[in-house]
Amino acid sequence: MTHPYIPNAEPGVRAEMLAAIGAARVEDFYADIPPELRLDRPLDLPEPFVAEHDLVRHMRSLLGRDTGTEEALSFLGHGCYPHHVPAVCDEVNSRGEFLTAYAGEPYEDHGRFQALFEYVSMMGELLEMDVVNVPTYDGFQAAGTALRMACRHTGRAKVLVSGAVAADKLSKLRDFLAPDIEIVAAPVGPGGEMGEVVLDDTFAAIYLETPNVYGVVETRGRELAELAHAHGALLVVSADPISLGVLAPPAAYGADIACGDIQSLGVHQNHGGGQAGYIATHDDEPLVAQFPSRLFGIAPTTVPGEYGFGDVFYERTSFALREEGKEWVGTAAALWGITAGVYLALMGPQGMREVGETILARTRYAMDALAGAGLRVLHDGAVHFREFAVEVDDAAALLDRLRAQGIYGGVPLDDRTILVCVTERHSIADIDRLAAAVASARRADDEGGRR
Amino acid sequence: MSGHAAEPFAKLPVGPKPPLRRFHQARWDEPIIFEQSRPGQRGIAVPGPGAPAVELPDSVRRAAPPALPEMSQLHVLRHYVRLSQESLGVDLNVDVGQGTCTMKYSPKVNDSFARAVAELHPLQHPDTLQGVLEIYWRLERMLAEISGMARVSLQPGSGSAAIYANIAMIRAYHAARGEEHRDQVITTMFSHPSNAACAKTAGYEVITLMPDADGYPDIKALRAAVGPRTAALLITNPEDTGIFNPRIAEFVELVHQAGGLACYDQANANGILGITRARDAGFDLCHFNLHKTFSTPHACGGPAAGACGVSEALAEFLPGPVVAEQDGRFSLVTPPRSIGKIRPFLGVTPNVVRAYAWIMTLGAEGLRQVAETAALNNNYLMHKVLQIPGASAPWDRRRIEQVRYSWQELSEETGVHSEEIGVRAADFGVHYWTSHHPYLVPEPFTLEPTESYSKEDLDEYAAILAHVASEARTDPELVKGAPYNSPIHKIDPTPLDDPRQWAPTWRAYVRKHLA
């Protein structure tokens, strides 16, 4: 049978093409592969579902075993967030012209260049910075690259990293930086913000996250920027862009490099597969030279009034320089950038402010509700955005009880700490339901304890 | 009324079609989105808080709203649909012109499976994720069988990220054996630039082998390069020239004898599926690009997805977690000496699901048909292209799945360069890419037809090239003046490299050029 995806496997056309080439068999094309390297048996793979209907049935039977965050009431975050995705984001994201395009030239992919230029431009407005890259893989990579950029820029090989960073992210930073860059962890203060900071002239950067892994909004950015600059170091701030309608952008308090993940901007959770990283700086040539990633910019054409686009400062990249480039650049996450651009255009300044205000208010409401249900809320005095941590007797036991009621109650940070995530998707009734379920689980535990 | 008074209408039957398609891409003169903003308009409403507002200290409150565009929903949608029409994906064109990138059909049904994981969270309890974890587990095993490797990780976010993960594992492996003095990585000039750049990022000195007179990586140069400082060989086979190195096992053996590891970049695996495997040539590590060989869409440059395959000896270093199975239940475990995280969570799940579905609809026989047809299509296209006067392919060797061609002869004769031919080809509705730097092959172009395209598609593509080549002879200025049928005209790239003029965002453009 000729497979629907392989037109020229049809025997007639195959023979016709072989005849045109003057080859006896397809086997002739593999003459360079020596017999001892040939696989002399068929691959040991499952029987295929060639008919689309059979494939659909198979895939549904597998995927039907998952219970997603729309079937449960989910308070899971910790780097992957359940924000509302406007339908227009999905519509644009699934357009075949974008979905199946790749690395075309400005003449046949003009729209892709413009859409990505507009994405970085809208991010630039949100961040108040003039240079933003075409997305890198994810916020982890963006943080690692931002710190490497700071080290290359300053010629130093030591960075101070906030202790309020997710363990997985720290693991990535260790792998990516540790071979030649020393990572010094800054303590977390009692309020959940970055604690006491000691710096000297050997540091390339202070790395701060806001909101940090506990959902705490850092308030001492200006002070840390001044401290870093006094020692010839840079302030690198990872900020979630969805917070920036209400929270000050890192540049406003003196950050030199901003970075983070854009999954919150119109990209579904995708089981963690919707991440994409941004890096931004001011338009400062030496720092711009440290970007490994692609930068798109406007260029004129022969026709007045026409915008052309192209790669800015392409000779920085490993495409041009191989090992002499700055890190590497390859296929990363461009379509999520286009999608995030659609999101920002839909939201506008007003929508971004409102979604920020809603998340702030509901986060505080949820903190109060869970405190009311008897949980100890960590860093209660700090401003929180979207996430907060609670301390419980047994995180796994509580989460199991909640799950039995169709609630994914949060992400366990350790045996006794749960990180709870609240977005604009969680109604007040949803939060009340969580609080009631927590209170009831605690009562059940108490009763169990008395027996 | 259509038609000009002086031009009579054509008669029935109206066929046959003209020899070349009369293509014209959509041209919308679409303003930059900021130019369409109308203060007070909005594209979507947001739920109100329903709870008391939070007072923010001045130090963290945003002082002024971001200058984002303000537009109604239809106008945002229309803007982006117009931009999409000004882009040329696989769904629209005979996309054989982006050699080394394996442009192929991304089945629509697989997109529907990807949508089914849209609202899964990666940190749900594994009991609620058994379906997606099983897909990971099955795909890991299928890729292990396809490569011959012992274990696979699907965490990397792309091919280049997988190359980097492999280098990180190589570094961890040598460190675990107390062999940190191994500080050199050997690669070849026709490997993707990421091989060299990833090795450099990981702290290695990079040694690059040049091709020998036959187009193979130079084995004498390899012999001279290997030694006690060798950490690894990173090599693609077939290379981006389409040439398979028949002495590849000997290359691996030389590196092993020196105590190094051998790592196979399988970006070009599409033509050898089921025919030869990385492990069978002795490799310790390999990677696949799921968006190339396994058909997940390229998405304007990602989201991509990569897979690392390793031998038993390297399995303990894999990025974690990986999926484990016991009694039909799937869970996550982190290998004992894992290099840690390469990216958040488990990787790019929508693409993992798509790649799994693609293999499940083809099976062993189907994958072999993919490879054989890719090789057939490539050799057929080569046969057609080499009939075009002025086109050549250096090194008279068999090719597997792509060919790096040269227009040197045509260029010398006409003064028209490969890049200009590519721009003119766009006027006929196809994409064409020159090649990676450095241009070891002069005036290069690299075509990779894959299995997705029909004989008629390949004939059409070759006819376009032949037509443009003949234009270069008869009217070189016509070719140099292209494009004519694109959304825009010829670009002056100089501002892009001038720090005083470049504008990587709209705000930079406004500040530098409109203020």
UniProtKB/TrEMBL annotation, chain A:
<dbReference type="InterPro" id="IPR015424">
    <property type="entry name" value="PyrdxlP-dep_Trfase"/>
</dbReference>
<protein>
    <submittedName>
        <fullName>Glycine dehydrogenase subunit 1</fullName>
        <ecNumber>1.4.4.2</ecNumber>
    </submittedName>
</protein>
<dbReference type="Pfam" id="PF02347">
    <property type="entry name" value="GDC-P"/>
</dbReference>
<dbReference type="InterPro" id="IPR023010">
    <property type="entry name" value="GcvPA"/>
</dbReference>
<dbReference type="GO" id="GO:0004375">
    <property type="term" value="F:glycine dehydrogenase (decarboxylating) activity"/>
</dbReference>
<keyword id="KW-0560">Oxidoreductase</keyword>
<dbReference type="InterPro" id="IPR015421">
    <property type="entry name" value="PyrdxlP-dep_Trfase_major"/>
</dbReference>
<dbReference type="InterPro" id="IPR049315">
    <property type="entry name" value="GDC-P_N"/>
</dbReference>
<feature type="domain" description="Glycine cleavage system P-protein N-terminal">
    <location>
        <begin position="5"/>
        <end position="435"/>
    </location>
</feature>
<dbReference type="GO" id="GO:0009116">
    <property type="term" value="P:nucleoside metabolic process"/>
</dbReference>
<dbReference type="InterPro" id="IPR015422">
    <property type="entry name" value="PyrdxlP-dep_Trfase_small"/>
</dbReference>
From TrEMBL, chain B:
<dbReference type="InterPro" id="IPR000192">
    <property type="entry name" value="Aminotrans_V_dom"/>
</dbReference>
<comment type="function">
    <text>The glycine cleavage system catalyzes the degradation of glycine. The P protein binds the alpha-amino group of glycine through its pyridoxal phosphate cofactor; CO(2) is released and the remaining methylamine moiety is then transferred to the lipoamide cofactor of the H protein.</text>
</comment>
<feature type="domain" description="Glycine dehydrogenase C-terminal">
    <location>
        <begin position="372"/>
        <end position="473"/>
    </location>
</feature>
<dbReference type="InterPro" id="IPR015422">
    <property type="entry name" value="PyrdxlP-dep_Trfase_small"/>
</dbReference>
<dbReference type="Pfam" id="PF21478">
    <property type="entry name" value="GcvP2_C"/>
</dbReference>
<feature type="domain" description="Aminotransferase class V">
    <location>
        <begin position="175"/>
        <end position="294"/>
    </location>
</feature>
<keyword id="KW-0560">Oxidoreductase</keyword>
<dbReference type="GO" id="GO:0016594">
    <property type="term" value="F:glycine binding"/>
</dbReference>
<keyword id="KW-0663">Pyridoxal phosphate</keyword>
<dbReference type="InterPro" id="IPR015421">
    <property type="entry name" value="PyrdxlP-dep_Trfase_major"/>
</dbReference>
<dbReference type="GO" id="GO:0005829">
    <property type="term" value="C:cytosol"/>
</dbReference>
<dbReference type="InterPro" id="IPR015424">
    <property type="entry name" value="PyrdxlP-dep_Trfase"/>
</dbReference>
<protein>
    <recommendedName>
        <fullName>glycine dehydrogenase (aminomethyl-transferring)</fullName>
        <ecNumber>1.4.4.2</ecNumber>
    </recommendedName>
</protein>
<dbReference type="GO" id="GO:0019464">
    <property type="term" value="P:glycine decarboxylation via glycine cleavage system"/>
</dbReference>
<dbReference type="Pfam" id="PF00266">
    <property type="entry name" value="Aminotran_5"/>
</dbReference>
<dbReference type="InterPro" id="IPR049316">
    <property type="entry name" value="GDC-P_C"/>
</dbReference>
<dbReference type="GO" id="GO:0005960">
    <property type="term" value="C:glycine cleavage complex"/>
</dbReference>
<dbReference type="InterPro" id="IPR020581">
    <property type="entry name" value="GDC_P"/>
</dbReference>
<dbReference type="GO" id="GO:0004375">
    <property type="term" value="F:glycine dehydrogenase (decarboxylating) activity"/>
</dbReference>
<dbReference type="GO" id="GO:0030170">
    <property type="term" value="F:pyridoxal phosphate binding"/>
</dbReference>
